[in-house]
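Q: What changes when zinc ion is included in the input?
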Amino acid sequence: MKTLWTPWRMEHVLGKAPKTSGCIFEPDGHAFADKKQLLLYRDTLVVVLLNRYPYCNGHLLVAPIRHIPCITELSQQESAAVMEMIKKATALLSKHLAPDGFNIGCNIGMIAGAGIADHLHFHIVPRWNGDHNFITVLADTRTIPEHIEITFDRLAPDFLSLNK
Ligand SMILES: [Zn+2]
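A: The predicted holo structure follows.
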């Protein structure tokens, strides 16, 4: 197996990522958005973050505010809020990044590949024709063409406009 330089994974493994609360899906403070925490959106039910360890450019995480591990524990109101946000976030990614498709889903439990198993979250992963899917799957390696803070700046104004 080839060893490739994947510094973001290393940071993950060593636990050096900026993380001030116990759970990344519960960002510090009460701000609607916060670039430092890659927080794009927060209301009383749902939170949207840019993944600090993305599979590709624009990889978003949508989670309920409530710290619950499984989709079965979502209330009806939370289910609606989370799905509505997945829909809106997908539309914003389409508008700004023009992907050819998306992978949208969640991993429940460590066995299923959840990095953070105790707080339910959905991944929205934009996909482009000819992107690096097989490399990602087989070698846990990826190439990120745009810096994450630039992606944040592109998406943040539209998420702000959702806050009405
Ligand atoms: Zn949590």
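Observations recorded in class: The chain has one domain: 7-162.
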